[in-house]
Amino acid sequence: MTQNLSVSEQVRYSRHLMLPEIGIAGQLRLKESAVLLIGLGGLGSPLAMYLAAAGIGRLGLVDPDRVDLSNLQRQIIHSTTNAEQLKVDSAAATIRDLNPHVKVECYPVRFDISNAESLAAPYDVIIDGTDNFATRYLVNDIAVMQQKPNIYGSILRFEGQATVLNYKGGPCYRCIFPTPPPSGLIPSCGEAGVIGVLPGLIGMIQATEAIKVLLNANDTLQGRLLCVDAWKMKFRELKIRRNPQCSVCGDQPSITTLRDENYVNTCETLVPVTISMPLKLSIHEYRELRENQTPHILIDVREEFEFLTCNLGGKLIPLSKLKEHLVQLPKTAMIVVHCKSGGRSATAAKLLCDHGFEQVCNLEGGILAWIDQIDPSLPKY
Amino acid sequence: MQTYRVLLFAGMREAVGAESISFDAHDVATAGDLLRHIRLLHPELEPWLKISRIAVNQSFVPLERGVDPTCEIALIPPVSGG
Question: Which of A1, A208, A284, B7 is the most exposed place for a label (fewest CB within 10 A)?
Answer without folding.
Answer: A1
